[in-house]
Every structure is written in C-alpha cells, then in structure tokens.
Amino acid sequence: MTAVTVRVPAKVNVQLSVGGRRPDGFHDLATVFLAVGLYDQVTATPADGLRITAAGRDVAGIPLDATNLAARAAVALAKRYGVEPDVHLHIDKDIPVAGGMAGGSADAAGALVACDALWGLGAPRNELIALCAELGSDVPFSLVGGAALGTGRGEILTPLEVGGEFHWVFAVAEGGLSTPDVYRECDRLRRAGGGSDLAANLPAPAADPALVAALREGSAVALRAALSNDLQAASVGLRPALAGTLAAGLGAGALAALVSGSGPTCAFLLPSAAGAAALAATFPPGSAHPAVSPAPGATLL
Ligand code: C5P
User: Which residue has its alpha carbon closest to ligand 1 atom 4?
Assistant: First the structure.
C-alpha cells in the first residue's frame, strides 16, 4: 500500500459531569460525547523514520515532533506489533486546535487506523480502542464516533442511540485553552466555594436520563433543556470573553449555547441547517462553523 487516508470527526460533550479528582490526577466523569461533522484527515505514507506534517486551520499551534499525539499513536502501535514506526503522517486540520473538540485525539485515532492499514497489521478493533485509551481520555471516542456515554476518565464507552440529526454552530476563539488548566480551575472553584474537589468526597457522576432520551428522540428542543457542562464556569473564568460569545449566539437565535468540552470553542444548538448557516453568518468570517451530528468515527477513505 502506498497511501492511506482516514477521516476523523470532532466531538462536543452534550453532558460533561465532572466528579472529584482521583489519586491518579484524573477526574471521574460521566460525559455524553456526540461526534460532529467537522473533520481532520490523516494520511499515512511509507517513509524512512517517523515524520509529521500538517496543513489547514491553526497549524502553527501543532507540534510536528514526537510529542504530537498522532506520532505517539504510530509509535505505540508499532511497538505493540513489533514493527518500525516508519511512516509519514500528514494531518489536514479542520478541527480547532486546543479548542475543546478533541482535535488532537482525532488525529491520534486517525493515525492508529491509518498505520494499521498501511502496515497491514489487521489489529482487532478492541485492541485499537485499548491503545486509544492509553493515548488519552477522548481518543477512544474519536475512533468510534456517533454518540456514547463516557465513564471512568471518559475512556470507558457505552454507545448511545441518536434518533435524528442535530444542527450546531461552533464559534472558534483566538488561542486555545489547556485542558489540565481548565480542570485545575474547576477544582479551585470547588475549593473556593467551600467544597471538596476530591473523588473520595464527591458522589460519582451519572448520565442524565433526560439527555439520553433527547438524543434517542432526536429532539433538539429536549436536548436544549438537558445540555450541561461542569467545566464551563472554569473555562469562562479563565477566558471571560466567552460569556459574551455565548450571549451573542443566544441573542442571534440559538436554542442553546455551551462551551465545548474544556473550551474555548463555543457550541450553539440550532433547530435546522438553515438556522445554523444564518447564525454562523453573524460571526466574523471564518470564525464560526456549522456542523451536523451525529458523525461517524474514524473512517478509511
Ligand atoms: O486524557 P488526556 O491526556 O486527554 O487528559 C489531559 C489532561 O486533562 C489530564 O492530564 C488531566 O489534567 C485532565 N483530565 C482530567 N480528568 C479527565 C480527563 C482529563 O483531569 N477525566
């Protein structure tokens, strides 16, 4: 094989319930991931050694060395199968970098699937998903797509049914937010409010049955009432301008507005594709992107 291209979706967390900080530093989660039709593409071609290149949106923010999560994915897969990680991975980015939409995770999942095919390994799907979980909490969902409940630190997935399409606009902020910083701020806010931030002292988070039902029904109106993100206060606290972005989208006709994951991308739910296109047009050119969910997971093109 000479070249393999894999398309991988972004995600929005329509529920992000954050429990306490565990002894390993991660937080217990009950999160509902929804894959959205904004995609990165990862192309793997044979090379002498491991090489990463990138093109597209925000590529200046992406490391092009061994620290890139896609590079780490290729190395982990090669090690597992006793082959050399000799591959050129080219990443075509459309997912915002450090935006709370799992762009880096998408690239890692894409790299795994692309290298598996290029190297003819035929890795079983559950093996790929286990490697994804070692690479990051969001990586397994990038591989499977659709909609899923994530528990543990987000890596333990239960697929969820989605009964219709949901229309979104994603407003991209200048500059990303670091996920660890946002979790740290969430912990700080909890302690400042007189509470504990430790898993031992907080109830385990759980899926919201109303939200799961809204997805199953494909009802945007029901989903609107059930959206939640426990990281939003921390994200807006670190980036106060987001409050204005969320309010602007609501004022311009969105059914609902929330920060996507750890942010700073803001997600707006709309009743229709036309509504999404109209809302996106109210933002500065290039800064807001309509997208439909659910979207499929990592797909060989
Ligand atoms: O798993 P991932 O590498 O994407 O996580 C990045 C960082 O986000 C972790 O190092 C941790 O600081 C934070 N995190 C967390 N709890 C989770 C997921 C991520 O505290 N469930």
Answer: 136
